[in-house]
Amino acid sequence: MKIAKSIKDVKAGELTLKKLWANEWEIEYLLVEPAYRGNGIASELLERAKAYAVKKELVLISYLEPVGSLDQSQMKSWLVKHGFKHGWYDFTNSFRRGSNKRVMIFNEK
Known about the structure:
Helix content is 24%, strand content 41%. A 6-stranded mixed β-sheet has the order 1-2-3-4-6-5, covered by helices on one side. The chain is built from 2 helices and 6 strands; from the N terminus they run E-E-E-H-E-H-E-E. The chain has one domain (2-106): Aminopeptidase, CATH 3.40.630.30. The protein has helices at 41-56, 72-81; strands spanning 2-7, 10-21, 24-32, 59-63, 85-90, 100-106. With 109 residues, the protein is α+β, with helices and mostly antiparallel strands.
């Protein structure tokens, strides 16, 4: 599932969610184009993903692999600010990374 933000018909940012297992979905990708950074677009996309997760009773998982302007510590702080908590996730059933990994989890239950 993709959640996008466009400004004047130009894609400014995008967040993608990928089903892992049952009601558990991963934030697979989040990118804000450099020209639009610093305007709250990433936060808007994340809040839209969280609203979708609450509506559909999903758990959001973020495996921390920052590749952009934020380092891992900054990414953790940003996710905590948005209601995520530290945890572990067993990726065995996702056929992706195998075994337990440290993640950030959003679950409104």
